[in-house]
Amino acid sequence: MTEEKRYPEKPEKVYYFGTCLMDLLYPEAGLAGMQLIQREGVEVVFPQDQTCCGQPAWNSGYRVEAIRVARRQLDCFNEDYPIVVPSGSCAGMMRHQYPEMFKGNTDELRANTLAGRIFELTEFLVHVLKITLEDLGSPVKVALHTSCAARREMGVATEHEALLKQLSNVEILEQSRKEECCGFGGTFAVKHPAISAEMVSEKANAITATGADTLISGDCGCLMNIAGHLEYQEKQIDSHHIASFIWERTHATER
Amino acid sequence: MQQSAEFHTRVEHALANGQIKASFRSAMDGLMAKRKAAFPDTEALEILRLHGAQIRANSLSKLPELLEQLEMNCHKNGIQVHWAESIEDANNIVLTIMQNHQADLLIKGKSMVSEEMELNQFLEQHGIECIESDLGEYILQLAGEPPSHIVAPAIHKSRQQIAHLFNEKFPDIPYSDDVDRLTRNAREILRKKFYAARVGLSGVNFAVAETGTLCLVENEGNGRMCTTVPPVHIAVTGIEKVVEKLEHIPPLLKLLCRSATGQTITTYFNMITSPRKLGEKDGPEEIHLVLLDNGRSRIYEDDELITTLRCIRCGACMNHCPVYARIGGHAYGSTIPGPIGSILEPQKAGLDKLGDLPTASTLCGACAEVCPVHIPIPKLLNRLRYERTRNDHAGATLGQSSGRTVMEAGTWKGWSWVHSQPRLYRLAMYIITRLRKLLPQRIGPWTQVRKAPHIAPKTLHELALKEGFNDK
Amino acid sequence: MTNNARDAILQRLQNSQPSFDNSDKPVSVETPEWPIKERIEQFKSILESVRAEVHLAHPDHWTDTLKSLAKKKQLNNLLYAKKGPLGKMIEDSWDNTEQPVLVNNEGPISEWKESLFFHIDAAVTSSRAAIAETGSLVLWPTEHEPRSWSLVPPVHFVVLDANKLYNTFAEVVEHEQWQQDMPTNALLISGPSKSADIEQTLAYGVHGPTDLIVIVLT
């Protein structure tokens, strides 16, 4: 968190780690992230053997089970390309927790090398690709929920906002207590459903109170949580992952 | 799982109480804003936090030596030092001192260690009256409740509730819910107690090894009263509170005051180095320092968990915790609530007793972000979740493995099995996406307040292939 | 029991020998340094923000300030230290028919505790030093000016020599080399007694003085 971050020059190729939630629930957003990178002239490699970063089990205390899954991911990204992850949470896991997970283990070096190549999508777009966005969409008001991992573990809250601010027809509406967690927390939502429910409903209320048409987040966990609640409340607010939101507003023709 | 049921009951009770929720929410909002205003320069704050973390880590690294040095200097200054392995030991030490002075009234300043000891209950069983003199603690003593916040103990009570409480306990004093009036009433009642008590008790914020000095931080003056007026002063503290040098105190004091309440400094910073000297007209003639272990030396054994002991008890982690703000302090069922309580208390009491606390966090990291001494609270919560469920019995944490259930372990084993075999994983995801319309729309507590997530018709793995993205 | 506990605790700690990451470079914290005028300004504004009063006075005439403030507060009596550093100047400027009545008591507090607790309206003491950054008075109570004088009476007057105004607490500790010889009791006082324990609402004069009045000699 306090370390100085260094970004590489624009590479020829990158790996993409799609995350398990995107794989099953938001594949379009996952694809949009890849298309955004590709449009900047960088080849995107998507290893088919990737599954999950292992965070769900790791955060539940099941370390042996988590390490087994995480080790399988180490096998997928052997070349020296940057690895782009469209989630602050999974990126944080791979960048900051992998070195801890494999400390003193035969895979320590591999894990450390991989961790050093992990970039969250928005920071990669802003700092490595130095992307410029031309907004082709109609005017829209959005509320942005930056995940706790994106904000605190990865420190990319400003990058999320910087990208949205490039879109000329997008107005970002500030919600109250925007730094506060949405109450997902992985298995927390299952173990402590009453507290989680309280948190998500307050978060959703703060978002609806802004009058936004669209909720945007860079993390599918938060999105699934908040959007799930908004839908339950029958609130007319769209929800988008930041990748698909940007892609849809900025690509001119069908490919 | 007895403890889970109890914890959930307390949580539901707290969530159902609108007044508690509103009190905490607005109080925590206020404390967060005050802290923010007290640290206008974020760069300077980061430097100060690093400095604070280093001071505490450094002191802990020399803990046994510093405790001996503290003891030696206290003795030299005339302060009597007592060591207690357990709260039973500590309580008995205090009782013996009381009995030696034939004292039947103990006037107390704010001390979380005395809460940990359940000292009041213990002494009352021996016919000794204890009076809390911190305004918040006094209110709670009248109400028969434990504190719900370490800095603002009665934060869960409304002004009206406090007014009714005073009226019920002191029917001769006219009813008032004016804060100034209530405060004046408490002043008058307690002044008589300070006047009468033969023994006063306090906690310790920092104990300086180099000089044998006990430091106390407070706003009300009750801490000074307890340590100035009665002829005997007993200070109780955990063994981890020792700091190597006097020069370490100013930065820690700055971090503590600003992190806790956003104050530049508290009204009183009271440094006690010896009993009354010849010629001095006041101050206690005897000072006793009780050093309590109660599980701290066990926490000390672990390179990672030891960081728990850096804590300077500012309460910033609870002020910033979205879970604490909703359930309040009592729901935790531990002496110290909130994020720091969730790592400290299960280590002291055992994961078999308080193992739910580390799970009651989203790991959002708001606590670690504000901790003045850089305790990596989310990392330690995660570690304790592991200690609670691991099955190799190779660690030292009390109550290890007590939270492992066949069902949960089986689920994660199955999950791990699928996710560590890419082909199997792809097949499983293929099947789920194809059967998505047949899957249940109600999934446990998740869908009590949410719609079920929408499973996509095709996975990202499939889309990536279809769109021609290379695998290598 | 105690000795066994001591040895057992120390032994457990010594046996643990946890490894520490000492790779961090020591952090150097910059401390502010203000010229005297700004120091006084800072000191005054911080103290006033916590409802203390700060008055500037000439070193030869400060007793006039004290007297007029004491009259304004309608005090019946004022506790002062005859043999303390302020004693002579106070006596010389006071007329014995004047209100408030000067009170001095050299005996141990236990001998006149009731009067101190329930009948003294105000006390005046000197101050060893002060801190601009936090608006704090540094008191090392003495046999002439005991520690309960700054605590028990409802009003506390403090006389401070502006030349003793430091920038920070760290500076005082370092400059005066406190670690060499700590007094029985060293105090930082940074305002009147206060509490926010009821609904986060500030109330003054909980157990200590309701009024803290500082006279700075410039």
Order of helices and strands of chain C: HHEHEHEHEEEEEHEEEE
SS summary, helix count of chain A: 13
Total beta-strand segments of chain A: 8
Q: Order of strands across the biggest sheet of chain C? A: 1-12-7-4
Largest sheet of chain C: 4 strands, parallel
Computed CA radius of gyration of chain C, to the nearest angstrom: 21 Å
Amino- and carboxy-terminal Cα gap of chain C: 58 Å
How many domains comprise the coordinates of chain A?
2
Number of domains of chain C: 1
Radius of gyration of chain A: 18 Å
Strand residue content of chain A: 5-15%
Q: Can you walk through the features of this model?
A:
The complex is a heterotrimer of chains A (255), B (472) and C (218). Helix content of chain A is 49%, strand content 12%. Chain A has 255 residues and is an alpha/beta fold. In chain A, the strands form 2 sheets. Chain A has a 4-stranded parallel β-sheet with strand order 2-1-3-4, sandwiched between helices. A 4-stranded parallel β-sheet of chain A has the order 6-5-7-8. Chain B starts with a helix and ends in a 6-residue tail after the last helix. In chain B, helix 16 (338-349) packs parallel to helix 19. Chain B is globular, with a radius of gyration of 26 Å. Chain B folds into 3 domains: 1-29 and 317-404, no CATH class; 39-294, 3-Layer(aba) Sandwich (Rossmann fold); 420-466, no CATH class. Chain B has helices spanning 2-16, 18-38, 42-61, 63-77, 87-100, 112-117, 119-125, 135-143, 159-169, 179-196, 222-228, 249-261, 296-300, 316-319, 324-327, 338-349, 351-354, 366-370, 377-389, 406-419, 422-434, 460-466; strands at 79-84, 105-108, 129-132, 199-202, 206-208, 213-218, 232-238, 242-243, 268-272, 286-292. The model of chain B has no long low-confidence stretch (mean pLDDT 96). In chain C, strand 10 and strand 11 (203-204) form a beta hairpin. Chain C has a single domain, classed as Rossmann fold (3-Layer(aba) Sandwich), CATH 3.40.50.10420. By secondary structure, chain C is of the alpha/beta class. The interface between B and C is large, with 102 and 78 residues. Strand 9 of chain B pairs antiparallel with strand 9 of chain C, so a sheet runs across the interface.
